[in-house]
């Protein structure tokens, strides 16, 4: 099916089933747990601690059809009846055996599993509150169970809060088998003070995943996790969706995280990668200028060294990336991603990915399709 040896989907998602919170949430929070309110006239509504989500207009709306692209739920035309959230979720988005069947049908060997609702709701709650922590714990236990019998083909990424117990929480996650974790929500406008998380993640050889929707953009705007501006149009906001990745990469270098935690590895998702060569040229110019001005606390090395001399930073890429135009060193950091089951997922990943992979040297095509993700998955980074 594929023209490469192996395929790993670096950015797959689950759609959290409605019974997750009922069955896995701490009983003390079940009366206030996340739930979905049925609304046949405008699509189901997500309730967070009893209040409707401000960021998600609707959940569900249409039942996905086999072999067709998944529609964008937020931009469905008005209709007399919207399908429920439950009906709108493919079975493969929440059931382990069904997901494995989808992987087989799509020619994919393994996939990372990120949350979907979990990318949004923490932005509308206090992400370090007992309420949020209980929901993170419930989600982690559920997604671990979903992936349990997949012989390593389903790779769950845990959610965690940046609380005083973050080291103990990572210890527990490592003990139950997790090796991938998202950057904690609620780190504020700086990475300073997150050292306990970084240190524990390095000790247990966690990969830290930085998903565009769930990372702080580090700018003093109304929301630390949202760059959308009410006064700007859709084009302005969509183009700038890559900025969180650029800003967070600058923050990691600025705080010398890559120097102080040299065994820590990172994966950026939905931030693109084609911007990186030009960005690194600018970053090197800034580093040299500040160094000549005797600025303190600079990264120990020119920014590009962290990409050419180390195997620590990776990027998932979609169909929009022109991989043939990227340098070889960036192809060795780029990982194929489908974003399944979100809108825009290719109806047939195999045929869709043939086009961007075919122009590459076979070694690079194999690296993007699976080799880079396999190095990220391996205990020592390969």
UniProtKB/TrEMBL annotation:
Keywords, ordered alphabetically: Hydrolase, Lyase
Pfam families listed in its UniProt record: Amidohydro_2
Domain Amidohydrolase-related: 134-376
A GO CC term attached to the entry: cytoplasm
Source domain of life: Bacteria
A single BP term in Gene Ontology: secondary metabolic process
The protein's name: Amidohydrolase family protein
Organism listed in the record: Actinocorallia herbida
């Amino acid at each position: 099916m594929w023209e490469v040896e192996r395929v790993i989907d670096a950015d797959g998602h689950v759609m959290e089933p409605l019974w997750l919170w009922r069955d896995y949430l701490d009983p003390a929070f079940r009366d206030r747990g996340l739930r979905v309110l049925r609304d046949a006239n405008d699509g189901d509504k997500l309730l967070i601690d009893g209040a409707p989500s401000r960021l998600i207009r609707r959940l569900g709306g249409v039942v996905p059809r086999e072999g067709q692209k998944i529609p964008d739920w937020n931009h469905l035309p008005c209709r007399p009846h919207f399908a429920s959230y439950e009906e709108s979720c493919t079975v493969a988005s929440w059931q382990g055996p069904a997901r494995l069947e989808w992987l087989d049908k799509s020619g994919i060997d393994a996939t990372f599993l990120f949350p979907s609702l979990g990318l949004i709701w923490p932005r509308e709650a206090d992400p370090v509150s007992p309420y949020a922590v209980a929901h993170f714990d419930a989600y982690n236990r559920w997604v671990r169970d979903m992936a349990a019998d997949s012989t390593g083909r389903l790779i769950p990424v845990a959610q965690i809060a940046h609380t005083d117990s973050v080291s103990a929480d990572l210890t527990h996650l490592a003990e139950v088998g997790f090796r991938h974790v998202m950057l904690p929500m609620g780190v504020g406008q700086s990475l300073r003070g997150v050292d306990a998380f970084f240190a524990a993640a390095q000790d247990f050889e966690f990969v830290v995943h930085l998903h565009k929707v769930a990372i702080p953009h580090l700018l003093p705007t109304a929301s630390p996790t949202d760059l959308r501006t009410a006064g700007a149009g859709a084009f302005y906001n969509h183009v700038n969706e890559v900025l969180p990745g650029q800003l967070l990469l600058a923050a990691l270098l600025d705080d010398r995280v890559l120097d102080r935690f040299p065994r820590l590895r990172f994966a950026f998702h939905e931030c693109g990668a084609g911007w990186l060569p030009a960005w690194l040229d600018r970053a090197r110019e800034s580093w040299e200028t500040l160094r000549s001005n005797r600025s303190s606390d600079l990264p120990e090395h020119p920014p590009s060294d962290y990409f050419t001399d180390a195997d620590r930073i990776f990027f998932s890429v979609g169909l929009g990336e022109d991989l043939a135009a990227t340098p070889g060193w960036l192809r060795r950091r780029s990982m194929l991603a489908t974003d399944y089951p979100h809108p825009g997922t290719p109806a047939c990943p195999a045929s869709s990915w043939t086009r961007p992979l075919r122009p590459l040297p076979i070694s690079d095509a194999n690296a993007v399709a699976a080799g880079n993700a396999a190095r990220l998955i391996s205990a020592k980074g390969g």
